[in-house]
Amino acid sequence: MATPTQANLKDKNAHYASNFKEGQLALPPAKKYAVVTCMDARIDPAAAYGINLGDAHVIRNAGGNARDALRSLVISEQLLGTNEILLIKHTGCGMLTFKNEDAHAVVEKNLGAAGQQELSGLDFQPFPDLEKAVEDDVKYLKASKAIPDSIMISGWVYEVETGKVNQVL
Ligand SMILES: [Zn+2]
């Protein structure tokens, strides 16, 4: 029995594939850039950020976190030729709503001692200040020896309330 989400995938994909005509795109992103943004369900990166199929890498994780994205960014730049990063966090981010100790308490309650042990010491990397978090992540990427100085890096905030994007730096 397919779950509703599995059924949705099959149905919607069948429709998508029946109209699909872009199977000849090259592997390296045509516009040579990578976007790091949050996994938040309210963000549609392709539409909101103007990304056409084949143009860019979109790396998503909780918070649009640069440290989490580093592995993918190195692959994007060194193996697939991208030379610019757009770091885009957003208003109303879940990462603004908790502290590390809160997340660890939930983990311990829901997953028990074994789960807590596996995740002990993990920094969930929540942040209390949105613009400062954008600045910190851009600073981290610029300081990283894994990201060459030639890579253009900018930081942005997307507003889930308006759909607008604003440059922080
Ligand atoms: Zn978020």
TrEMBL record:
<dbReference type="GO" id="GO:0008270">
    <property type="term" value="F:zinc ion binding"/>
</dbReference>
<feature type="binding site">
    <location>
        <position position="38"/>
    </location>
    <ligand>
        <name>Zn(2+)</name>
    </ligand>
</feature>
<feature type="binding site">
    <location>
        <position position="90"/>
    </location>
    <ligand>
        <name>Zn(2+)</name>
    </ligand>
</feature>
<keyword id="KW-0456">Lyase</keyword>
<comment type="similarity">
    <text>Belongs to the beta-class carbonic anhydrase family.</text>
</comment>
<feature type="binding site">
    <location>
        <position position="40"/>
    </location>
    <ligand>
        <name>Zn(2+)</name>
    </ligand>
</feature>
<feature type="binding site">
    <location>
        <position position="93"/>
    </location>
    <ligand>
        <name>Zn(2+)</name>
    </ligand>
</feature>
<keyword id="KW-0479">Metal-binding</keyword>
<comment type="function">
    <text>Reversible hydration of carbon dioxide.</text>
</comment>
<dbReference type="Pfam" id="PF00484">
    <property type="entry name" value="Pro_CA"/>
</dbReference>
<dbReference type="InterPro" id="IPR036874">
    <property type="entry name" value="Carbonic_anhydrase_sf"/>
</dbReference>
<dbReference type="GO" id="GO:0004089">
    <property type="term" value="F:carbonate dehydratase activity"/>
</dbReference>
<protein>
    <recommendedName>
        <fullName>Carbonic anhydrase</fullName>
        <ecNumber>4.2.1.1</ecNumber>
    </recommendedName>
</protein>
<dbReference type="InterPro" id="IPR001765">
    <property type="entry name" value="Carbonic_anhydrase"/>
</dbReference>
<keyword id="KW-0862">Zinc</keyword>
